[in-house]
Amino acid sequence: MLSFLLLTASGSMILTVFRGLSDGDLEGCRLAAGIDPDDQGFWGPTTRITGQAVAFRYCVSKWAPAPPGWQIVGWPLLLTVSAGLIFYALPLWKARRSRVVSLESVDADGELRALLAELAATTGVVPMPKMVVAPGAVSSTGAVVFGRTRRPVVCLHGGLLTIRRSDPERFRAVLLHELAHVANRDITLTYATVAMWRSFLAVVLLPYVLWQCYWIYGFLADGIVPSLDRGMLLAAVMVALVYLARSDTLRSREVYADLTAVRWGADPHGWAVTAAPPGGSVRRALASFLDLWRTHPTWGLRQGALADPAPLFRAAVLPLFLTGVLAVMTPLQLVYQLAPYYPNVSSSVFQVMVLIPAALVTGVAGVALWRVVAYAVLTGGRVPTGMWAGAWLGAGMAVGPVLHGYGTGWAWLPVRPQVLLVPVAVGAAFGWWTTQCAHLWASTWRGRTLRPALLLGLVAVFLAMASWLLWWSLIGTVWAGGFTVHADGMAQSLLEWLPSAAPVGDPRRLPGITTVIPLLQQTAGTPLSALSVTALWVVPLIAWAAGPMMGTPRWAPAPLPLPVDPVVPLRWLLRPGLLGGALAGIALAGVQAYVHTGQPVPDARGGMYALRYVGLLLLALTVPSTLAAARASAVAGRFRLHGSLIAAQTATLLGLTAMTVLVSLDGCVGPLSVLHDSCAWRPAWAQPLFPFAFLLDNAVVLGALTATAAAAAAAALHRVRPSLPRTSDRSGPRTRGIHARRFAVGLLCVVAVGASATTGAYQLRQFGIFTDLTMGQRKSAQQFGLPDTPVPDKTRMYQVHAWYWLGGIDLLDLTTSYTKDLVTAGRGADDAPNEPWDSRDQRFRPVCTSWRSPTVFEVVWFQVPDPSVQADWKALRTHAERGTKRCMQALDSHDLSALRNALGDLAAAARCASSVNARIDAILRDGGRRGTARAPLTGTGAICDRA
Predict the structure, then answer these.
(1) pLDDT band for position 275 (50/70/90)?
(2) pTM assigned to the model
(3) C-alpha to C-alpha distance for 812 and 913, rounded to whole angstroms
(4) CA distances to 422, 696, 816, 844, 942 from 813, in Å
């Protein structure tokens, strides 16, 4: 995790330095886009950019180009190479600094070497590490191991040799501790971490700090006190987080080396160093805070771990919180690096980007929670729920975007801070599911080791975390930042999604059109959502299918103090799921019959009609699965969450199967016909008016959410009113029909995984790698609009100034040339009123063709950041578009009267261009700036008809 974060951070921090050192005018492009420099929010500036993405990309490429890609890619490579050099140089440097000598030079009789060889043979550390002595370290009674795991070097301090005879037990304990580092393979991990950290400080952090100091000096030289820079604060927080995580890793390795040494026979009293605890609550709190920054644990912590290792098998909240922060910040750092070069990558690319953070979270948090459960089962302790630890992981994922600024802009809290509670809840659910999964497998697994079960559980957690990180990084943070959809734009988008030649009803009045429907669409846009949810119930289903285990499990090294928790029969979970599936099938048929009663003509079966149909189908799938989950959670015992998921998703799977059959045979049963009138096999996933993937993804995800809520409610109710556990009517495990049961479970798992994996693969292929930037710009402007917030006149002048001089001047010059050509062509027509039509066509067709360019001005360049000027600019496009179309039609039809009307439209477009130039000139001059390059026209020639 640390190495990955340092690599991603190095690229983003160096990109900031390079962009700052360049002479680019990125701020000018933001002003030209109409962004208020004083707007500290996120959503407003974001929509101004995404709604004008083509223009912004062009402006940045021309006026603020990103550094060459090799510089950004090369810096992480330089960081890695320099870290490798430091890693190999550290042993030489430590040996030279300590002025070590060979062991033979102080052990003439070979007694010490024989003792060391005996200890190495006893511990199984073969071959024996190289032994050296630091004679100058007479004040230290310790030792240190350095080098690499395969080439370790143990350095004995001079003070340690002096106590060899006076305190042999301490001498032995110190040596066993260092040999434990070798056996635990800590050396390479420790020094690789140190090397990467020192390389980051020299190669990345130092240039970044120097740049920030130069930036601050520039402000101070101009007599301006700079405000707190978020970038510098982010760098400081990131460095602190990395250092805390590094220190925690090094401290834990020391404690585990102590435990290994004691297991080998070291006297625990060798760690008996008395230290008076700090007095007072403030001093104790300060001491605890300072301990977080230490790379070595305190003697009190080491003694406590030797007396009771239970704290080592608890999920520490600090590493989980740091893991959550880093897991969110790393993909955001990658997005920041990728955006200047590839602004139009699809969600498939982002899905790949979050795979590594998801794997790291799974490896850190998932393994930690499994260790907690395994230790509790082996020692007879209470198995925790994992929700508290998971909530800290989620809190880190909530803090990550706030620190980065994605979703908050320059503010310190997003517009909707309540959304930050979502990752906390998701983290708690993550911890709950993981601990229950580990406990369930520990209660049913019959193998010699839990590792296969651990791997299977971590795969499910990995898929779920990958989907969640994608959703939270790209969607959840945007919702927190003020995501707002316009009802008009969403209604138009719905008609494009479910087209109708004769739409019925007004989608703008539909409840939830700006909230619920966008959330459902974004859920369906997460490629691995269905597959991840499927893994979350298939993995515990496999464990449950094995049946309850009698006696001591084979993976336990000794008989358990307490018997494993009972697992209710699987049929108690599948029955609610099967009944829920049957109820879903009936409800789906009822939806078909109900919708059929209002079936319109074939051309009107899209739009609101199809949307209502889809909504009712989703409701018919979700309600039965929720009822099944509620019933299963009431009888599942301790494993409520998994039982609820199994029942709910079984019902959902059966309901989806019934839905697929009904929709594929739509039209074969008259009273159930919805989209078709004739009978034929039309696969549900291939029908244009039926969003199959949308329904599948959302039905699966909603089923998982309602199942989790049902399990949480059942757990809370159980705390308030504990009930006696229900027992089976058989004393032992039910063996009759076990093969048929396992076959049915296997078939259920194969169908579920196959359907969800196929859907995910199809979506990944549909999304591709890159998106159409122009299409994305159009959809963004359509759904979200371009906010025009009131700004001071001076700011408006700066925006118009940037719009004009960075690109608007070129477009106005084009309209000037088109106007001249139009005037010339019109004058020639007046001089030859009876000229042949072919001659007239040759004169006007090039003019009409050239006037097509203004029709795309608002696509290739920004809207004018002044409402009155933008109204003329829009009228220019309207007149040019209408005049060009009419001109071509008139020339093709030889209609002279229509041609004159078309030329009148083009002349009106020319007057609007003159009005735009005159208004911009006035705004610039009123603000004390130079006016436009072309002198503004006056009179009727500069009056724009906006009708």
Answers:
(1) low
(2) 0.87
(3) 7
(4) 52, 53, 5, 20, 15
β-bridge partners, 145 = 154
pLDDT at residue 428 above 90? yes
Query: Would you tell me the crossing angle of helices 367-379 and 421-444 to the nearest 10 degrees?
Result: 40
How much is the pLDDT for 885?
Answer: 94
Q: What are the start-end ranges of the H helices in 99-185? A: 111-123, 158-162, 168-183
Q: How far is CA 521 from the centre of its chain?
A: 17
Q: In what order do the strands lie in the sheet with 143-148?
A: 101-102, 130-134, 151-157, 143-148
d(CA 272, CA 267): 10
Exposed / middle / buried, residue 501 (Cβ in 10 Å: 0-12, 13-18, 19+): exposed
Q: Are 26 and 64 in contact (CB under 8 A)?
A: yes
The one-letter amino acid at 263: R
Rounded CA separation 448/936 (Å): 87
Residue 731 to residue 209: CA distance in whole angstroms: 70
Q: Work out the mean pLDDT of the chain and round it to a whole number.
A: 87
Residue 795 has pLDDT above 50, yes or no: yes
Give the DSSP H or E segment for 493: helix 487-497
Q: At what angle do helices 692-720 and 529-545 cross, to 10 degrees?
A: 50
Cis peptide before 127 (omega within 30 of 0): yes
Q: Rounded to an integer, what distance in angstroms lies between the CA atom of residue 322 and that of residue 320?
A: 5
Residues 395-415: pLDDT tens digits?
Answer: 999 998 988 888 887 777 898
DSSP state of 144: E
Contact 443, 340 (CB under 8 A): no
As given in the structure block, the two tokens for residue 251 are 């401290």
Rounded Cα gap, residues 883 and 875, in angstroms: 12
- Those residues whose C-beta lies under 8 Å from the C-beta of residue 298, and which sit 6 or more positions away, are 275, 291
Residue 153's beta-bridge partner residues?
130, 146
Q: How many Å apart are CA 506 and CA 493, to the nearest integer?
A: 13
CB hemisphere CA count around 937 (13 angstroms):
15
DSSP 345: B
pLDDT tens per residue across span 613-666: 999 999 999 999 999 999 999 998 889 999 999 999 999 999 999 999 999 999
pLDDT at 831: 57
- Here the tokens at position 555 are 């993976």
Q: How many other CB atoms are there within 10 angstroms of residue 361's CB atom?
A: 29
- Would you say residue 326 has pLDDT above 90? no
d(CA 425, CA 259): 36
At 384, which amino acid appears?
Answer: P
Neighbours of 392 (CB within 10 A): 23
Classify strands 143-148 and 130-134 as parallel, antiparallel or unpaired. Answer: unpaired
* Interatomic CA distance for residues 178 and 442, integer angstroms: 34
Burial environment of residue 521 by CB neighbours within 10 A (0 to 12, 13 to 18, 19 or more): middle
Answer whether 398's CB lies under 8 Å from 416's CB.
no
Write the pLDDT tens digit of every residue in 751-793.
Answer: 999 999 998 888 888 877 778 888 888 888 888 888 888 899 9
Residue 29 CA, chain-centre distance (Å), reads 28
The structure tokens listed for 661 are: 């059959």
Q: What SS3 class is residue 864?
A: coil
Burial class (CB in 10 A: 0-12, 13-18, 19+), 778: middle
The answer on pLDDT for 861 being more than 90 is yes
Do 57 and 773 meet the contact criterion of CB atoms below 8 Å apart?
Answer: yes
Q: How far apart are CA 797 and CA 792, in angstroms?
A: 9
Which of the 8 DSSP states describes residue 770?
B
What's the sign of the alpha-carbon dihedral 681, 683, 684, 687?
negative
pLDDT band at 270 (very low <50, low <70, confident <90, very high): low
- 143-148/151-157 β-pairing: antiparallel
Over the stretch 153-163, which tens digit does the pLDDT of each residue have?
989 888 888 88
Q: 564: which DSSP letter? A: P
Distance from C-alpha of 947 to C-alpha of 930, rounded to nearest angstrom = 31
